[in-house]
Design a protein that fits this description.
By secondary structure, the chain is mainly β. The chain has one domain: Sandwich (Jelly Rolls). Helix content is 8%, strand content 40%. The strands form three sheets. It has a six-stranded antiparallel β-sheet, with no helix packed on it. The chain has a five-stranded antiparallel β-sheet with strand order 9-8-11-6-13, with no helix packed on it. A hairpin with a 6-residue loop joins strand 1 and strand 2.
Length: 183
């Protein structure tokens, strides 16, 4: 596998080795030794999956206690995946980085604890799967505004497909408010 740091060096884009032929392909989705060597910790406590249609924007979510590291992939379809650094005292606080994940390349994004995470679906339908390093704790859940001008995410919005948001995501908070989330 190839591991590439994004513009925020602790966020990693992993390109697995695909073994394919005319029947399909095989890849390792997790290898404790290889991932540990790349700086991606375990253990994992939960695996999650979400299926969404074109134009759905989910996020930007984080937990302020029981922070979660996430190992994110898109086994089918295509989406733009984003991580925003919300770690207090970080030199990249409030900065974002992102990558297109899709079912063709099978790349994986490591989003460390202390980051908000979200994505926008580019294909007709996409499946997102992710492993997390801590359990979901709704009492510690926060949502950063997807369109906060101080973060300035350059979402690749598809003309005619404005973001479809959940009520929770419509009520996301600003980066100014997020400064208080993590010590």
């Amino acid at each position: 596998m190839n591991v590439e740091p994004l513009s925020i060096p602790s966020v990693l884009l992993i390109t697995p080795r695909l073994f394919g032929d005319d029947r399909g392909f095989f890849l390792e989705t997790w290898n404790a030794r290889k991932h540990a060597d790349a700086g991606i910790p375990g253990p994992w406590v939960q695996d999650n999956m979400s299926v969404s249609v074109r134009g759905v924007l989910r996020g930007l979510h984080c937990q302020v206690r029981q922070t979660q590291g996430k190992l994110v992939s898109c086994p089918s379809g295509s989406l733009f995946d984003v991580a925003v650094d919300l770690r207090g005292g970080s030199p990249t606080f409030g900065k974002w980085c992102g990558a297109v994940l899709d079912g063709e390349k099978q790349q994986v994004l490591w989003v460390p604890p202390g980051f908000a995470h979200g994505y926008y679906v580019l294909s007709e339908r996409a499946t997102l799967t992710y492993k997390v390093t801590d359990f979901y704790a709704p009492e510690h859940d926060k949502c950063l505004r997807w369109d906060d001008a101080d973060v300035g995410i350059d979402w690749p919005l598809i003309p005619g497909f404005p973001p479809l948001l959940s009520p929770k995501d419509e009520r996301g908070e600003s980066l100014t408010q997020a400064r208080e989330w993590f010590p």
